[in-house]
UniProtKB/TrEMBL annotation:
Gene name of this polypeptide: WBGene00272141
Known EC number: 1.-.-.-
Cofactor note as given: Binds 2 Zn(2+) ions per subunit that likely form a catalytic dimetal center.
Protein name: Fatty acid 2-hydroxylase
Highest taxon listed in the record's lineage: Eukaryota
Residues bound to heme: H32, H64
Chain's role: Plays an essential role in the synthesis of galactosphingolipids of the myelin sheath. Responsible for the synthesis of sphingolipids and glycosphingolipids involved in the formation of epidermal lamellar bodies critical for skin permeability barrier.
Keywords: Endoplasmic reticulum, Fatty acid biosynthesis, Fatty acid metabolism, Heme, Iron, Lipid biosynthesis, Lipid metabolism, Membrane, Metal-binding, Oxidoreductase, Transmembrane, Transmembrane helix, Zinc
Membrane-topology annotation of the record: Multi-pass membrane protein
Organism field: Pristionchus pacificus (Parasitic nematode worm)
Length: 319
């Protein structure tokens, strides 16, 4: 994570759940009788059974007293949210976010379960919201068109078998290229730390990713709206069309676009789906939720953990 200014308060929240309520116990962590490491081990998870001494954590089983449960109440994040003028505002909050200064980084990493209004304008507000199914509905026909063009041209020039192999090779290369793009943009663009002295930079960061960490369960802000995505996709497709021959470009471009569609759909599912325990999707769900609630400096891969392993940013899956 690249910091732009040492003035940013980048202290991490230490989040736990107890009976469904979210607590940020980072101010207490250094005072915990069992040590900070125990709390870091269970961060992002439900601690009911640990606190009641029903399960072991790091080899120790300990039933906490009533006083410990009462002490926890002061760290209830929902009570902080009730007193937060930004969250309680019924107007667009974007301008207020820029005034958070040093508190911005910590504020966005204390998740709020609801939704936040960004703009006073209902039209602008509507443009920030996209249902997940819009993404495949909009982009998959384009993927299909590029695929058909590529297969037809390769069949004409190389025959059915060789053409299909070439198409599949570059389509898969496009998908892999997307997974690398996804990783790099998540790690270095989305998790860029803006200067706390610049309201404009705080607002830009909040728009591109900060709002997702603040409201991770807002289902209408989990995928990227197609309209602003069009010029971005067009820019990359223009580059690739000048690198590859036309049928190869169509294969590679359709693969990369398909990878993007899968990424957005998988991301939505990881927040709102209910995969069966022990399945790969369950692992991915826990892995990604730990990025939100345990350690946002690791687990940058959404579609795959491949690049996390290659670049040593592997996070934690299920306990």
């Amino acid at each position: 994570m690249g910091a732009e200014s040492s003035n940013n308060n980048t202290d991490k929240p230490l989040l736990i759940y107890l009976d469904g309520a979210l607590y940020d116990i980072s101010p207490f962590a250094s005072k915990h009788p069992g040590g900070r490491k125990v709390l870091e081990k269970v961060s992002g998870t439900e601690v009911n059974k640990f606190m009641r001494g029903e399960e072991r954590i790091m080899g120790v089983k300990h039933a906490h007293t009533d006083a410990a449960f009462e002490m926890l109440l002061k760290y209830d994040v929902s009570k902080e949210h009730e007193l937060d003028p930004i969250i309680s505002s019924k107007r667009g909050i974007l301008g207020q976010v820029g005034s958070l200064g040093n508190d911005y980084w910590r504020w966005i990493h204390q998740p709020y379960e609801g939704t936040l209004r960004l703009f006073d304008s209902s039209l602008l507000e509507m443009c920030t919201r996209t249902a997940w199914w819009i993404i495949p509905l909009f982009w998959l026909p384009i993927v299909a068109i590029f695929t058909i063009i590529s297969l037809y041209d390769l069949y004409e020039s190389m025959g059915l078998f060789t053409g299909a192999i070439i198409w599949a090779t570059f389509f898969i290369a496009g998908v892999l290229a997307w997974t690398l793009t996804e990783y790099l943009q998540h790690r270095f663009v989305f998790h860029w730390v803006p200067s706390s002295k610049s309201p404009a930079k705080l607002i830009i960061h909040f728009l591109i990713h900060g709002i997702h960490h603040k409201t991770p369960m807002d289902g209408d802000r989990l995928v990227f709206p197609p309209i602003p995505a069009i010029p971005i996709a067009g820019f990359f497709l223009l580059i690739y069309s000048n690198i590859f021959p036309w049928p190869i470009f169509c294969a590679f471009g359709s693969g990369k676009l398909f990878g993007y569609v899968m990424y957005d759909c998988i991301h939505y599912y990881l927040h709102h789906g209910s995969p069966r325990p022990t399945t790969h999707l369950h692992f991915q769900k826990v892995y990604h939720n730990n990025h939100h609630f345990k350690d946002y400096d690791v687990s940058f891969g959404i579609s795959t953990t491949l690049w996390d392993h290659i670049f040593s940013t592997v996070g934690m899956g299920p306990l």
